[in-house]
Amino acid sequence: MVDLIEMKTIGLTGGIGSGKTTIARWFLAEGIPVYDSDSQAKELLHTDETLKEKIRQTFGENAYIDGIYNRSFIAAQVFEQPHLLQQLNEMVHPAVFDHFENWKKKQKSDFIVKEAAILFESGSYKDCDAIITVVADEDIRLARVLQRDGLSEQQIRQRMQNQWTDAQRRELSDFIIENNGDLESLHHNFDRVFKALTQQFQTR
Length: 204
Ligand code: ATP
Hints:
Helix content: 40-55%
Strand order of the largest sheet: 2-5-1-6-7
Structural class: alpha/beta
Bound molecules: adenosine-5'-triphosphate
Largest sheet: 5 strands, parallel
Low-confidence stretches: none
Number of strands: 7
Shape: globular
Mean pLDDT: 93
Order of helices and strands: EHEHHEEHHEEHHHEH
């Protein structure tokens, strides 16, 4: 029998260090498939031959060394010529989109979650049936990322500047998960949203 009810896509986003991955793990624990756009994009830079060719055409042969994506070279190019970042994103987004669509076809669930740091910036929010944004104050996010990664405060602030603000994200979101407190209160906020999603989208 053909399944006429289309599987829903829930976008999960938020600024650097807001808590997206933490929330994504809790969805997985509830049995909801999660697509991690950021890791998949990194993977596709190494594995998608069409994408690799486009990147070579824009950045030159140094973009890959023995078939491996030359991250530091590309980062330096993008830093020197910021318009190249937009060009790179315009090459990567369609590749991730196709990969996501293929992945989604293989899932069995009433809804799936698409986690992406730049869900709004990339435009992929337009393909979502509902959007969750995780919000937390900038200084709290900064402290969390400083503890987690080897990045400097300046590097983190620069990434924040390249992303939308929470105020912009809020306007286009259906659900907000606030994460200025401890993990217990985050879990409580997650539960509330998870229940609402289940009520809205569970069909079986
Ligand atoms: P990025 O965009 O950088 O990948 P993210 O939005 O996925 O970040 P997480 O990786 O989930 O964010 O969280 C950032 C860090 O902060 C992690 O080390 C996580 O364990 C920690 N963290 C998240 N929320 C809390 C909290 N409420 N209390 C304490 N630590 C937290």
